[in-house]
Each structure stands twice: as structure tokens, then as C-alpha cells.
Write a structure and sequence with these properties.
Layout (H helix, E strand, L loop, with lengths): L1 H12 L1 H7 L4 H4 L16 E2 L5 H4 L7 H14 L19 H8 L2 E2 L3
């Protein structure tokens, strides 16, 4: 009976020792639990001076409120002269620079 208790204690206290002794790392046997997916990127740049809300929504990171803000700015101020003008649009002032850059890469000012 005493041997049983010692054996159980060893199993619970040193579980990784036995997996390494067998030549199998516990890290090698684990499988990924989630699949990394890439965001869907618009295949063709979206013209922010002419695009309707639905087309603006194809831009990765674009929300419905940001798309509406672009259209409202465009209707009030006229066409965007540069993509830097996005910083004047409501909702874009707080966007992190790396996320904004990723969005701008999917935009154009020409047809």
C-alpha cells in the first residue's frame, strides 16, 4: 500500500519528467486550438470620392459609422484632395496609425 502512495505522488509531482523521458515533449503533442484567418481585403482599391456605403464597407477595418462619416464629409466638404484628409473625418482621429495605414492602402481617390 505504501508503494502505491509513493507511486501516485511521483506521478502527480513529476508528470513532465515522464513525458521528457519518453522523448516526447508536451509542447510537441499540443495542437493549435484556433485557426488564424486573414481579414478579407478589397481586391481593388475603393474610390472614397465616389463609393457608396456598401463599397466603403469592403475596406478592412471600416465600420458602418465611419463609412457614413466619409459620405457626410464628402457631401459637405466636397471630394477628398488627399488620403490624409481622412484625419478630418469624424471617427478617424482615434484610429491607430497602423490600422489607418492598412485602411488607406485599400483606398484611392481616382476611378
Amino acid at each position: 500500500m505504501r508503494f502505491y502512495h509513493v507511486f501516485v505522488a511521483i506521478l502527480f509531482l513529476f508528470p513532465y519528467h515522464f513525458s521528457f523521458a519518453a522523448g516526447v515533449s508536451s509542447l510537441e503533442t499540443k495542437k493549435p486550438t484556433s485557426v488564424q484567418t486573414q481579414p478579407v481585403v478589397s481586391p481593388k482599391p475603393v474610390n472614397i470620392n465616389q463609393a457608396p456605403e456598401e463599397d466603403l464597407m469592403r475596406i478592412t477595418g471600416m465600420t458602418k459609422s465611419k463609412a457614413k462619416s466619409i459620405i457626410a464629409y464628402r457631401n459637405k466638404q466636397g471630394q477628398f484632395a488627399t488620403l490624409d484628409d481622412l484625419s478630418k473625418v469624424k471617427g478617424f482621429k482615434r484610429v491607430k496609425p497602423d490600422k489607418l495605414q492598412a485602411m488607406v492602402q485599400q483606398m484611392t481617390l481616382k476611378s
